[in-house]
Design a protein that fits this description.
With 437 residues, the chain is an alpha+beta fold. It contains 14 helices and 22 strands. The structure holds S-adenosylmethionine (SAM).
């Protein structure tokens, strides 16, 4: 990426500051509320002009500052960037300021992933730090969410007191490697998952297995609904007869790293990631492109989250229902539905949805713990139990390994966990549906 090129996130457009931003920059760095936590004194117009000029043409320099603008109205929101790049110590300082009308609207959380990415990937530093006034609790909280921790000052302070918070590359992202022995001829895949993005779970791995086991029937155009860090889309794109896979996700952090993972795995030309709510991309142009896929999609992959507004199955209904608009006749859906949902729920899903043949389980693990030390799974179990209490279909877990027949429902599983801390067993599974029109 060229540092001078504009780019955008969901709500923000970033571009280098220009001289016609002078009034906005002057206002930003002279307003008393804004200056409360700045280490520099309020500026005048001449200094504001100097700031803009200082940050022009950042390539090869140790500092850069983008203006951040509302993507629709183009109104000035603030600035962000880096300075004090130290190539010997491989560290850089970052900073940002948001105009006071836009505080507490999550703009920093939207800008930070991009800024971190630029510093780690383009500047190739090992450490990013930020200096903050100890009273500026909001800023300290914002960066803590991204894994920044308090440390000794990374450089000599020009004003005191200041808190130094740093983030090391090794803390920013972990990497998962799918070795080539595991991908059944589709090669080695490396996946980065920075803080705040989705990490692969046992459910991801079973869908990976379903894809590699069924690679002969996957071809043409695919959709990866809820792509996370892009793992399934990238894997499917490695199949020779697959032309293109569209990865959809509601999290901008996921979409951003998914695109990066595609590049690292040399499949940029075969995947396209879109920020979307279900099958609806947010960006107008992407929506138009996606709409053209109606009736042309050969396969859909999905490991959806558990829904919290019903029996946990809501996203599966959404995936299967929406898929009908996009699939060609005989198109395939590989959908994760783990064992505990029970075959009755799978049958009722199939019955309630016209147009599909149910093709059975495409991949399954053996009995594995439904690990209730994972807060997300404990939350799911509580939802399941509530659904049973309301009179919904029972869920089915294996109580323990002592017997292959000792099945229990969600309420008993929750009771066992509360009383004895025991997690029940389930099988992570991918089911196959064929669209017959
Ligand atoms: C269980 S994760 C699966 C991620 C990845 N496919 C995998 O298997 O590793 C579910 C994904 O669905 C995304 N998601 C949740 N709600 C969504 C929605 N309404 N539209 C699109 N994606 C959504 C989440 O952000 C998350 O990345």
């Amino acid at each position: 990426m060229s540092l001078s090129e504009p780019f955008s996130t969901e709500r923000l457009k970033f571009r280098l500051l220009q001289l016609n931003d002078l009034e906005a920059i002057y206002r930003q760095f002279s307003d008393p509320d804004m200056c409360k936590y700045f280490s520099d004194p309020p500026c005048d117009r001449e200094e504001a002009k100097g700031i803009i000029e200082h940050y022009q043409s950042p390539e090869g320099k140790g500092h850069l500052r983008y203006g951040m603008f509302d993507i629709i109205t183009e109104k000035f929101i603030g600035t962000c960037g880096y300075h004090y790049l130290d190539n010997d110590l491989k560290q850089v300082e970052i900073g940002y300021d948001i105009w006071k009308d836009y505080w507490r609207k999550g703009y920093i959380s939207e800008a930070l992933p991009v800024l971190l990415h630029i510093c780690f990937e383009e500047l190739e530093v090992e450490c990013i730090y930020i200096l903050a006034d100890p009273q500026n609790k909001a800023s300290i909280k914002s960066v803590s969410k991204f894994g920044f921790v308090e440390c000794k000052p990374c450089r000599e302070l020009d004003v005191e007191p200041q808190i130094c918070m740093k983030l090391l590359r090794t803390e920013w992202y972990k990497e998962t490697i799918l070795e080539k022995e595991f991908t059944n001829g589709l090669g080695r895949i490396s996946l980065k998952h920075p803080m705040g993005t989705f990490s692969l779970t046992p459910a991801s791995y079973i869908l990976i297995e379903a894809i590699t086991n069924n690679k002969e029937i996957l071809n043409g155009i695919g959709i990866d609904w809820g792509t996370g860090i892009g793992c399934l889309a990238i894997l499917a794109a490695k199949i020779e007869l697959v032309d293109k896979v569209y990865g959809l996700d509601i999290s901008k952090e996921n979409i951003y790293i998914a695109a990066k993972n595609a590049k690292d795995n040399n499949v940029t030309d075969k995947v396209c990631f879109m920020l979307a709510d279900s099958y609806s991309p947010f960006n107008g142009e992407e929506k138009q492109e996606f709409d053209k896929l109606r009736g042309k999609v050969n396969f859909i992959l999905s490991n959806p989250p558990s829904s919290d507004w019903d029996d946990g199955f809501g996203f599966r209904r959404i995936v299967l229902e929406g898929a009908r608009e996009y699939l060609v006749k005989n198109g395939i859906v590989l959908l994760n539905i783990s064992f505990q949902y029970g075959m009755k729920r799978v049958e009722s899903l199939h019955k309630s949805m016209d147009g599909y043949n149910y093709m059975g389980v495409a991949a399954s693990t053996d009995w594995v713990p439904f690990d209730l030390s994972r807060p997300d799974l404990l939350e799911c179990l509580k939802i399941y139990s509530g659904e049973e209490v309301k009179g919904g279909l029972d869920y089915t877990f294996l109580a323990d390994r002592s017997s292959e027949n000792n099945f229990i429902n969600a309420q008993t599983a929750l009771d066992n966990y509360n009383k004895r801390g025991v997690s029940p067993l389930t099988q992570w599974q991918t089911h196959m549906f064929q669209y017959i029109g």
